[in-house]
Amino acid sequence: MEFVRRGFNSVKRRYRTAAAVGALAVGASLLAAPQALAADQPTPRQLLDACSWADVCDFHPQSYWTYTGPRHQVGSSAFNCGSTTNQHAINWSDTTGSSNTFGVAISQSVKFETVFESEITLSYSHSWQTSHTDSETDTVNIPAGHVGWIERGTAKQQAKGWYELHFGKPYYGHYIWYLQNYQASGFNADNPHAGYINFKDRAMTSGERQTHCR
Predict the structure, then answer these.
(1) 3-state SS, residue 54
(2) What gap in Å lies between CA 13 and CA 151, rounded to an integer?
(3) Cβ distance 111 to 52 under 8 Å?
(4) pLDDT per residue as tens digits for the range 123-160
(5) In the chain, at which residue ranges do the beta strands (DSSP E only) sit?
(6) Residue 50 burial (CB count, 10 A)
(7) Rounded distance, CA 197 to CA 149, Å?
(8) CB of 81 within 8 A of CB of 213?
């Protein structure tokens, strides 16, 4: 029974994709950046918002990959004004949200995000979270006269594809619209340990000594 369900989904997906490609001849495709659009075309934001009331709103994923996000400091810096190496507990909290190529705010309540998440799970067997927060307390060994901090690279994921929207009556002159080149990033909840945490330190500057070691 499980094999039959996979086969059915596979056939269904091929049928939908073929139908979508065939419909390109009668639909309109939105490729331009928002500031370059003519007045007779919807903006990417308008199309994504229309997902909630369009007759059909589908996301067609084309690629998926994981990576490590850019390094950034989490928590505050700790200063060791003593004459020996000291341990400092640093509390930190780091939130990773989802972002996309069109700069449209993402929340779990919007339809286009729900459609996106379900298709990513179906196509690549990877879950997608709109927002994820990690919180920890780590102990950093800081040499005398040094400042220490925690540096993190977050485990992230990205997916790219296009939206297909069908309308019961013409929307900006067309029954079908395509939003091309939609790409979103988010936290890699399936492999959160793919990122890293580093303990860093360096010698304090004279200014930092004057500020923190009085």
Answers:
(1) coil
(2) 42
(3) yes
(4) 999 999 889 999 999 999 999 999 999 999 999 999 99
(5) 28-30, 56-68, 72-79, 86-97, 99-100, 131-142, 146-153, 155-171, 174-187, 196-203
(6) 20
(7) 10
(8) yes
